[in-house]
Amino acid sequence: MSSPAVEDGLVLTRQDDAGPRAPVVVLVHGLGSASTGWSPVVPGLAREHRLVLVDLPGHGASPAAAGAGAMTPPELGRRLLRLARRLRDADGRAVHLVGHSLGGWVVLEAAAGDGAPPAVASVTALAPAGLWTQPRRRPPLLPTGQQLARWAGALPAGVLGSRLLRTLAFAATSAAPRSLPPEVARDALTAVAGAPGYAAADAALAAGAFTRAGDVRAPALVVVGARDQVLPPRHLRRECAPPQARWVRLERCGHVPAWDRPDDVVRLVREQVARGEEVARAGT
After folding, report:
1. In a domain, 117, yes or no
2. pLDDT 10s digits, 47-77
3. 164 in any annotated domain
4. Is residue 89 scored above 80 in pLDDT?
5. How many domains does the chain have?
6. pTM for this entry
7. What gap in Å lies between CA 191 and CA 203, rounded to an integer?
8. 135 CB burial (10 A radius; 0-12, 13-18, 19+)
9. Helices (H) and strands (E) in the chain, counts
10. Which domain holds residue 235?
11. What CATH number did the domain enclosing 245 receive?
């Protein structure tokens, strides 16, 4: 991977091993996560795609964004769309957006704001937030994910080598927490615990919904985990997704498909990119 670079307040990490003519895929993480959260799928995706891994503001290595509303999904979507346009202008081709949870909502917002010539060739939303009529709210006395991560992160470094501790720490986000590699678990806790943008983004998630489904023109794919406890499948509404979106349900999968079903995520992204490239060729 290349050294991270800052563009428009986003820290970007690129992996271009697939060659200059490979499609560009932009990966956008979820609430409290970072670009490191994609590590289980990066090797598979990088074989056929040039990757741009994004750290959203106040997450990973990106500085926190200033100003009211800076962490709302629509505003983050506008920022992501500016990135997609810069990448298109540099490469001469529209790019493919892949997002998880908060990132899933953000990539949908970016695609909804796209115009002509298009900057977004396809969009893949993994366990996306925003596809609801009423946000799923946390009971007021329940700790936030960031608070839990800070408590777990305060444990000795070797503790996450225990399958029991990984089960306790990730039971809500993974369908198979005992199988999570310790380094993936440690990176996830570190990212959430240290994200200064977490609280603002968390509040924004609970304050709205994705309302621009009809404006998305690019081929869209929504992937949900059958055992997602953070955003259960019954909570997400197909009518809130782009009308042309394919909807895939992954069995034995929790809230983070890249952890629980990495091979399937690679396959689905590969198929969606191919579909987007085909539609782009047909339109030229």
Report:
1. yes
2. 999 999 999 999 999 999 988 789 999 999 9
3. no
4. yes
5. 1
6. 0.94
7. 18
8. middle
9. 9, 8
10. 5-138+196-282
11. 3.40.50.1820
